[in-house]
Specification:
Length: 366
């Protein structure tokens, strides 16, 4: 909005003597009105009759402001001051969520008033991860998370003998998990730019492997139940590891083959490292559960910091696993390798285990 200049630009209304625009997403978007809006803005900033009489404030996300400035190089020098509003810290988000949930008096929210160390660390790690994703709205999104939790509470029927609705750790963890996954999907949603020759190939029907949902509790439960995966359908023929790795294809050079083997070892080592992180979290959780003595403040802080670090790494593991599964799914559908060998990630793409077929990350839209 613009206010009381000698000549009011079209499309802006009066308000004091300060021009304020909080619609930088629309101003900086690629629309037919962009040129006209930018011309008006630059014109008002450069006219002598408006010199030192017009204050213009642009408010918006960093990406939108940068895109707006890039549309006209002369704009940057016209705005001499920048006020950056940092994201709320994970602790501030947690306090805001706790207070927001506490305003609903019909619900028992003891679990968020006095959370245990592991649950508290999980919440802080979730907010820390969310704050790194594009479009994080701080207090607005925390309020949305709070409202979602309350809706989930009211949608759950009361158990027999239960007189009051209760917020549980499972509900809070599930909402935070779904929010993280939703924001990750938004941030990584791209349309693959496949070559014409590959895009025209018929898709091979294959099993869809859905990415497992994430919570620290679900990981711990999987570990408690053992690391052996559930039995698959005995009637289905499952390829062995040797079948997926396959022999060296004819014509593959020593240089390509040696690099492929090195990348395979590195990929397998990463998988083992991820498993160690999950086991470490499990061991720490058991240690806390089996500790009959109440830890002092220093020990509690150390435990919480360690759990937060592990949970952050577990988020990264889950995100990396999802991307890998998506890449493998696309590779199967493209049917570049007729033998169906395993695909090994490399620096700039994926190569089949036989060595003769390569698909770049750009072709996969990664």
């Amino acid at each position: 909005m613009w206010a009381r200049p000698a000549q009011k630009p079209r499309g802006f209304s009066k308000r004091d003597q300060v021009g304020f625009s909080s619609s930088t997403r629309r101003t900086g978007s690629r629309t037919a009105h962009l040129g006209e809006a930018m011309d008006q803005l630059v014109d008002c900033l450069t006219k002598e009759k408006f010199f030192k009489r017009l204050i213009v404030i642009l408010a918006g996300y960093d990406e939108d402001i940068n895109r707006l400035m890039a549309s006209n190089p002369g704009l940057t020098s016209r705005f001499s001051e920048t006020v950056t509003f940092k994201n709320l810290s994970p602790s501030q988000c947690w306090v805001l969520l706790r207070d927001s949930l506490g305003q609903v008096h019909q619900v028992d929210h003891a679990v968020v008033r006095q959370p245990d160390g592991q649950f508290h660390a999980l919440i802080l790690a979730s907010f820390e991860h969310l704050s790194t994703l594009p479009g994080w709205g701080n207090g607005r999104d925390v309020k949305t998370i709070s409202d979602t939790i309350i809706r989930r509470v009211f949608s759950c029927p009361l158990d027999e003998g239960q007189t009051q609705m209760v917020i549980t750790e499972k509900m809070v963890s599930a909402v935070l998990q779904s929010t993280v996954l939703e924001r990750q999907l938004r941030a990584t949603a791209t349309v693959p730019n496949l070559p014409t020759s590959l895009a025209a190939m018929p898709a091979m029907a294959g099993p869809h492997h859905a990415a497992p949902s994430f919570t620290a509790a679900s990981w711990a439960k999987q570990q408690d139940n053992g690391s052996t995966p559930p039995d698959t359908d005995s009637g289905a023929a499952t390829p062995t590891e040797a079948d997926l790795n396959g022999p060296r294809d004819p014509g593959v050079s020593n240089e390509v083959w040696d690099q492929l083997q090195a990348d395979r070892k590195q990929h397998d080592a990463q998988i083992m490292h991820d498993a160690e992180i999950i086991n470490e979290e499990k061991a720490l959780r058991k240690k806390l559960d089996n500790n009959s003595e109440m830890p002092d403040d220093d020990e509690r802080r150390q435990y919480e910091e360690l759990i937060r670090s592990l949970v952050r790494q577990m988020f990264e593991i889950e995100e990396r696993k999802k991307k890998e599964e998506e890449a493998q799914r696309k590779l199967r559908e493209m049917r570049v390798c007729p033998m169906g060998y395993r695909w090994i990630p490399q620096a700039t793409g994926y190569r089949c285990a036989g060595g003769s077929h390569f698909v770049s990350s750009a072709q996969l839209g990664l």
